[in-house]
Amino acid sequence: MDVRMDTAHLQTEHGPRTQLNRRYMVLGATMGLLASTVLIVTVVFVTEGAHNDLPKVDPQSREFRGVWVATVENIDWPSNMSLSTEQQKSELVAILDRMVELNLNALVFQIRPTGDAFYDSQLEPWSYYLTGRQGAPPSPYYDPLQFAATECHKRGIQLHAWLNPYRARHKSANYTLPATNMARRFPQYAYVYDGYIWMDPGAADVQNHTYAVIIDVVRRYDVDAIHFDDYFYPYPAGGVDFPDNATFRAYQSTGGTMSKSDWRRDNVNKLIKRLYEGIHAEKPHVKFGISPFGIWKPGHPEGIEGFSQYDSLYADPKFWLEQGLVDYLAPQLYWMIDPPQQSYPALLDWWLDQNPLRRHVYTGNYLSRIFTSGWPVSELVNQVKISRERAGQMSLGNIMFSMKPFRDNISGVVDIFQSDVYGRPAIPPVMTWLDTQAPDPPTGVKAGTKEITWNRDQSGVVRAWAVYRQDQENTWGLVQVFGYNTTSVSVEAGTYMLRAVDRMGNESTDVIVKVS
Ligand SMILES: *[C@@H]1O[C@H](CO)[C@@H](O)[C@H](O)[C@H]1NC(C)=O
Ligand SMILES: *[C@@H]1O[C@H](CO)[C@@H](O)[C@H](O)[C@H]1NC(C)=O
Ligand SMILES: *[C@@H]1O[C@H](CO)[C@@H](O)[C@H](O)[C@H]1NC(C)=O
Ligand SMILES: *[C@@H]1O[C@H](CO)[C@@H](O)[C@H](O)[C@H]1NC(C)=O
Ligand SMILES: *[C@@H]1O[C@H](CO)[C@@H](O)[C@H](O)[C@H]1NC(C)=O
Ligand SMILES: *[C@@H]1O[C@H](CO)[C@@H](O)[C@H](O)[C@H]1NC(C)=O
Ligand SMILES: *[C@@H]1O[C@H](CO)[C@@H](O)[C@H](O)[C@H]1NC(C)=O
């Protein structure tokens, strides 16, 4: 999606948990604290299966709020490939701190834009966009992906590792590829197309290599998800067909009977299926999400016009949803709400209807339009609201392309989002097909003067702590989410509910505490 701003296809384009056996924790240490001068009332009560007084939690406290941080062409990070290690780190930290301010909960971080690596890899060279020379490690040395994982998780933010499966070099840069780049390892399957170097998705060597790269990331890094965007076969250019005749002929010579288009789609589908299974076999909690172009085929739904990813990128996200080959789909609905040819709500409703297995759908939104095309910020705010209104149909959040407007507060976007749609924090929704284990509740919870404290997690399972405040009787709003390492919060007087949150977003039973 990183090039769609300046390419031809632009014209067309481009639970809440219900816990039945609820148990309010009996809090220890209450008696001892009562003796001190601080004002404490710790509520201690136990109810089992009392359906009628389950805490009612603000539904917006469950929402995926992601942002893409593109590294290709230094779009979002690092802002320049000549930055020092310290500058790179402080830029990434500033991005994460801004995400916390904005109550965003997932970083979609591009770690392999062009057959390269923003991490220590034995399989591929260091990225050109990191140091200005493909193959050159950052100096002084650090591992950006490792750094990002630590800094995200400290803040209770998910890290989705975004990789481009087939692109070996972007057309905007003609640097020399080192021998470790996939285009030089498999030169017979590396084609110059529209100024890019693009690997042949039909070649087993390419499929195996991309698969190995991704599984290596899953194995060695604490990522929460693997993420693809809209790039499969390249966007067609200049009426030129992708030059894969030799590979197709090889397929036919082994008895293959599919049409070329079906064969191309099958090549993509096979990689996706293999990845879905391989990722979950390696680490069941690592999700696989794809953010395809926003239109499947023109005419779906009726009235939609534009580019067909099915026929031209050989991407079939409808099939992936039907087959359960993705944990989430984030269709890039990069158009405005009103124009009927690519109507945001009409397309969203269509995608939500293609989801028989009820996987998560997070809309991709084109935030950068506020500076590339003068969209008002209100357009994006309204798009979030439209996605949110459909939460009951698995429309469970948004991913913004890209971080830059938030990073630079373009058009005052930060304050507008804070004061409207992202005023309160949210926890990413749970994928019930991946996990049914809740973490243990917080221990050692104590109310102090304008403060709540609790014990550090010993289990290693807790990813975040969720703090809810009682708004009205038995109605709770999520007011803060902290990373696993936090053990206290300053609060106003009131009644609070604390829950531990695991890496899948599942929450523990409640600990209720009253702060005077
Ligand atoms: C990086 O900095 C150099 C020198 O200041 C500048 O020429 C170049 O355009 C910058 N690149 C980007 C991507 O901003
Ligand atoms: C890189 O080379 C390709 C042709 O191989 C060309 O289309 C493209 O414009 C070049 N890009 C730059 C930035 O020079
Ligand atoms: C690709 O990987 C598959 C599965 O591991 C293997 O059977 C096949 O031989 C590999 N193909 C090539 C060309 O390496
Ligand atoms: C690829 O094969 C098709 C069908 O046989 C043919 O029309 C086309 O010219 C071939 N392309 C190239 C680049 O050889
Ligand atoms: C963002 O920009 C607006 C408008 O210029 C300004 O009022 C606000 O203070 C800025 N916010 C941040 C967090 O920089
Ligand atoms: C969270 O864990 C609990 C307890 O294991 C389980 O019953 C519940 O289904 C999980 N919640 C979700 C939304 O998966
Ligand atoms: C978490 O807290 C412990 C104890 O203070 C500290 O040793 C550790 O470095 C912290 N972890 C991170 C990632 O900051």
UniProtKB/TrEMBL annotation:
In terms of InterPro entries, this protein maps to:
Divisome_Glycosyl_Hydrolase (IPR052177), GH (IPR017853), GHL10 (IPR003790)
Keywords of this entry: Membrane, Signal, Transmembrane, Transmembrane helix
Q: Where are the transmembrane segments?
A: 24-46
Q: Which organism is it from?
A: Branchiostoma floridae
Among PANTHER family, the record links this protein to:
GLYCOSYL HYDROLASE DIGH
Q: Please list the residue ranges annotated as the Glycosyl hydrolase-like domain.
A: 63-368
Record-given protein name: Glycosyl hydrolase YngK-like
- Source species, domain of life: Eukaryota
